[in-house]
Write a structure and sequence with these properties.
It is an enzyme of class 2 (transferase). By secondary structure, the protein is mainly alpha-helical. Helices cover about 65% and strands about 0% of the residues. It has a domain of about 240 residues.
């Protein structure tokens, strides 16, 4: 919205600053951060008053989690509110990729909100049927995948790009949309599975969003893509403003989600943020890099898949408990120890993901 102030500039003056994506990204970060600090306490008070007993705690979960009973959920509303406000205020609203990621974020937030609401109302961990959640997630992701193909350059439409092997493209044709669905739905559910300890999910999400924001800015500039020899996707640079909002809103939320958490993100936040990461990867043609940058989420999801398949086949467990962060809890690791070590792993993976821009 504020971008239109550039019309008041003749190429100089203070309003000219709004032409720069980096300046507006900084504004989005500060706006989202301020939003989190201002609206965090009143939102938490409302959630605590409305929810009563708070988020139900798994009866088969680690014993240490029972002390968290009564903690309200749906804290993702704070992050989503910060991201939406900052993006609408600072991004160019004539950019289709901005609306694509907003569409996925809000749609998955709605699914997560319905699930959280059902859990709190029924006071059990079942929530909305998994089949219904997946069906809605598939439909939203399919729309987003088709949307992205309409704005990708003709040379990149329906193509799968590879990091390092930058001249290599795989034409998926019609199957690009199912592939995009797998990326977006997989990302959303992987982040959802990771959100099991205080502060565990939000920092890796912020790291991944910041990394993808840098990538989006790079592939959206023709001069940078020529220097790095990566594929140019016009318009994706504006996604940096959106990811800056995630970073600021995430920091604001972490203030209240740090151990011991005053509020949980809930599916409202985890599904929305995971879906957003997937949508950004599809938009920028960096789906494979997302698997590197979000490697922690991949491992968390794989630990659940391996546990379920192995148990069905043998009746035994690979991990003491899945997702894998609960395995380490069962082994005696303290919750802050797990969280901080997983943050470190996320940062390392993000740096590896960024390195693929230069490595050939």
């Amino acid at each position: 919205m504020l971008y239109w102030l550039t019309e008041l500039s003749d190429g100089g003056g203070v309003f000219n600053l709004f032409r720069y994506i980096t300046f507006r990204a900084g504004g989005a970060f500060l706006t989202a951060l301020l939003f989190g600090f201002l609206f965090g306490p009143p939102l938490i008070n409302v959630l605590r008053r409305k929810q009563g007993k708070g988020q139900p705690i798994r009866s088969d979960g680690p014993e240490s989690h029972f002390v968290k009973a009564g903690t309200p959920t749906m804290g993702g509303l704070l992050i989503i509110g910060a991201v939406i406000t900052s993006t609408l205020l600072w991004a160019r609203l004539d950019n289709p990729f901005v609306w694509l990621v907003l569409f996925v974020t809000l749609s998955y937030a709605a699914i997560g909100f319905a699930d959280d609401y059902a859990k709190v109302k029924k006071q059990n961990t079942a929530g909305v049927s998994g089949k219904v959640r997946l069906l809605l997630g598939f439909l939203i992701a399919a729309v987003a995948g088709f949307w992205a193909t309409q704005y990708h350059p003709d040379a990149l439409a329906n193509q799968l790009a590879f990091p390092i092997f930058k001249d290599t493209l795989l034409n998926l044709g019609f199957f690009f949309i199912p592939f995009a669905v797998i990326v977006i739905v997989g990302s959303a559910n992987a982040v959802n599975l990771t959100d099991g300890l205080d502060g565990l999910a939000i920092m890796p999400v912020m790291i991944a969003a910041g990394t993808l924001g840098i990538i989006a800015y790079a592939v959206g500039r023709v001069d940078v893509t020529e220097y790095l020899d990566v594929h140019y996707v016009p318009g994706t640079g504006e996604i940096l403003v959106f990811t800056a909002g995630i970073f600021g809103g995430g920091l604001g939320f972490l203030w209240y989600n740090a151990p011991p958490a005053a509020v949980f993100m809930g599916d409202t936040g985890s599904l929305a943020l995971g879906g957003a990461l997937g949508a950004i990867a599809v938009s920028t043609k960096h789906e494979i890099v997302l698997a590197i940058v979000g490697g922690l989420f991949v491992v968390e999801a794989l630990s659940v898949i391996i546990q379920v398949l192995y148990f069905k086949r043998t009746g035994k467990r690979v991990f003491l408990m899945a997702p894998i962060h609960h395995h380490y809890e069962k082994k005696g690791w303290a919750e802050p120890q797990i969280v901080i070590r997983f943050w470190i792993i996320s940062l390392i993976l993000a740096l590896i993901g960024l390195a693929t821009l230069k490595v050939r």
